[in-house]
């Protein structure tokens, strides 16, 4: 992770790059593919929610997240597959919690992709429950976590 990493608000022109990152995610292949099938991050979504992206100095997209303020929830969080484990996710979580704090939130809910639960717990989230399947796209249970904003 470079000290030159830039985190900025996503704009309409970023929508296709964000969609490409979602669609290329190795975490959503195989049994989990249905949840992102046909999913797009559109300009309207970017206008409605607090979406931030991380870029390197050359403009390469490293990852992004979406924070919904009401009710407070981390809706999307993705890191480029080849950069996982290098601090991008940690940087984004720190940023989302800073945004939540600035918005006056006391916490942020995360309905986690099952393989990502350990990451969120390492970042300080506590498991508070389980969210049941929502067929036909989601046919598995997902961990529900909570970040307390201090």
From TrEMBL:
Keywords in UniProt for this one?
Transferase
Q: Which SUPFAM superfamilies match?
A: Acyl-CoA N-acyltransferases (Nat)
InterPro entries hit by this protein: Acetyltransferase_Butenolide, Acyl_CoA_acyltransferase, GNAT_dom
User: What is any Pfam family matched here?
Assistant: Acetyltransf_10
Q: Where is the N-acetyltransferase domain?
A: 5-146
* Gene3D superfamilies tied to this protein: 3.40.630.30
From the UniProt record, which GO molecular function terms apply? acyltransferase activity, transferring groups other than amino-acyl groups
- State which residue ranges cross the membrane: none
Q: What is this protein called?
A: Acetyltransferase
The organism is Streptomyces griseoruber
């Amino acid at each position: 992770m470079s000290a030159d990493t830039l985190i900025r608000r996503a704009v309409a022109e970023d929508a296709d790059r964000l969609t490409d990152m979602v669609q290329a995610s190795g975490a959503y292949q195989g049994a989990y593919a249905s949840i992102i099938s046909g999913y797009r991050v559109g300009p309207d979504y970017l206008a409605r929610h607090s979406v931030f992206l991380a870029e390197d100095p050359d403009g390469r997209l490293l990852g992004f997240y979406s924070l919904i303020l009401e009710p407070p929830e981390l809706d999307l969080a993705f890191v480029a597959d080849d950069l996982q484990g290098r601090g991008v996710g940690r940087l984004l979580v720190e940023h989302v919690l800073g945004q939540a704090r600035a918005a006056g939130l006391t916490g942020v809910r995360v309905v986690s992709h099952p393989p990502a639960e350990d990451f969120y717990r390492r970042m300080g989230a506590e498991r508070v429950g389980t969210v049941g399947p929502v067929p036909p796209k989601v046919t598995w249970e997902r961990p529900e976590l909570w970040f307390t904003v201090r």
